[in-house]
Amino acid sequence: MRRNPERLAWTVVLISLFICLGLAVFVPLAAGSIINDSSETVAITLEVQQGTALVSRPDSTELIGVTTSLSNLPERTSIRADDNVQALLTIRSPYDNSVLETVQIYGSTDLSITRARSPRFQMSTRLHQIDLLTNIGRVRVNVAGSNARPIEATLTTPQARATLEEGSYAFEVSNDETQVTAREGSAQVSAQDVVQEVTPPGRTVVKLNGPPSGVLSPERNLVTNGNFRLPLDGTWTVYNDLQNNRELSGTVTIQTVGGQPSAVFERQGTYHAETGIRQLINKNVLDFSSLRLHFVVRIFDQNVPVCGQAGSECPMMVRLDYKDQDGTDRSFLQGFYAQPDSSGANPTYNTTSGSRNEHRRVPANVARTYDSTNLMETLKPSQITAITFYASGHSYRSSVAEVELLGEQ
Fold first, then answer.
1. Using one digit for the tens of pLDDT, what is the confidence trace for 294-312?
2. What is the number of structural domains in the chain?
3. Do 208 and 80 have their domain in common?
4. Which of 8-12, 188-192, 282-286, 348-352 is predicted with the least confidence, judged by mean pLDDT?
5. Which pLDDT score is estimated for 1?
6. Positive or negative CA dihedral for 112, 106, 46, 197?
7. Confidence (pLDDT) at 62
8. The domain containing residue 169 runs over which residues?
């Protein structure tokens, strides 16, 4: 049989053409797929604010007791907070270290990091993905805004799954039910093929093997602009009290601290000063069954140990002015400090306030969440007059965020 060189040549040309076309099409597609779909674990840090948290990594059965902080947590890490433990989980972008999400973990809580990934390449169109699992306990989830790349955040419980937009959400999970409260933003809570949108100031309850209950009446926040997303003007009054008027006044500015809009108190000086913000509330609370104060405090710098010689110079203090049930004006005062006094000379309470309420020491540069007991039981107020946050001393830098005075009728 004689060979046909022309046919062979055309065959080679056509095969080469198809190979070139295939490479021209499939190589860019494969490269594009790699660039778009490749991902990496985000930066995850656990800061223990109180007690000892137990951490279990996916590659080990050993429980790690953490009393300060632990960085570079991998996916599928589990965190257990026993009674009286508080911890803050911070999830940051691998690109610019910006905060994507924070989770305040309270006592008697189990939390697992199911997924926490970001696209490996900036060119990718994928979202940041953060999936958490809570089997029992109480957490507060803050999802940050991201102009560069949206965040897909979910939290799953035995009863429900919540998809969270930018905002702040409270979860309480028991063996029988999950409660989801939207403080800011919008949560899509799904169970039994039913999806319930929850927006502020609403909440929903999901019973085991049941659908969401619908939107229920929530606790009411009596504080305006406690999230500091609006300017201070018109909602808070800024004031300064200087011992020496020749020194500079302190400042209160809204800054992003730990991914949260915060009121930051700053001053450098030699003489005593006080810098604060105050908001009038004037709300009758006689018919309230519950009233709780919640906020996040950070102490960055102070120059007097504890809170000074009289216990009145804390770098952050909160004062709640109220009337008791006899109509008498009273105040609840709580101070926070980071610098101890090795000599023991400075008192750990305000000796000028008329009531001995111990100041709370917090680690420097670490967020500490404060949640009061039910003030209707401890203070028995008839009216809340005002709330004040202030820094006191000579030089100080501190911040407060997420201010809520939550009342339930």
1. 999 999 999 888 888 888 8
2. 2
3. yes
4. 8-12
5. 47
6. positive
7. 87
8. 40-217
Please check whether residues 179 and 293 belong to one and the same domain: no
Alpha-carbon dihedral sign for residues 68, 74, 80, 86: positive
Residues above pLDDT 90, as percent of the chain? 64
Residue 393, strand partner residues? 273
Cα–Cα distance, 124 to 37 (Å, whole number): 7
- How far is Cα 207 from Cα 180, in angstroms, rounded to an integer? 12
Question: Which is nearest to 338 in space by CA: 369, 300, 371?
Answer: 300
**CA atoms of 341 and 364, how far apart (whole Å):** 14
The token pair that represents 22 in the structure block = 């295939």
Q: Concatenated DSSP letters for 198-217? A: E-TT-EEEEETTS-B---B-
Rounded (10°) CA dihedral 72, 76, 81, 85: 20
- Report which of 305, 293, 280 is spatially closest to residue 334, judged by C-alpha positions: 293
Cα torsion angle, 262, 255, 185, 129, sign = negative
The Cα–Cα gap between 48 and 33 comes to 40
Neighbours of 270 (CB within 10 A): 11
Q: Answer yes or no: do 210 and 242 share one domain.
A: no
Q: Is residue 34 part of a domain?
A: no
| SS3 state at 144 | coil
The predicted structure's pLDDT at residue 123: 67
Element (H, E) at 228: none
The mean per-residue pLDDT over the stretch 194-200 comes to 94
Q: What is residue 243's three-state secondary structure?
A: coil
Backbone angles phi, psi at 32, to 5 degrees: -65, -40
Residue 245 has, within 13 A of its CA and on its CB side, a CA count of: 0
Could you read off the pLDDT of 1-17 as tens digits, one per residue?
456 777 767 777 777 77
Q: Is the dihedral of CA 333, 339, 341, 345 positive or negative?
A: negative
Q: How far is 199 from 178, CA to CA, in rounded Å?
A: 16
Q: How many CB atoms neighbour CB 356 within 10 A?
A: 11
User: With bands split at pLDDT 50, 70 and 90, how would you rate the model's confidence at 218?
Assistant: low
Judge if 209 and 245 occupy the same domain. no
More confident residue, 276 or 150: 276
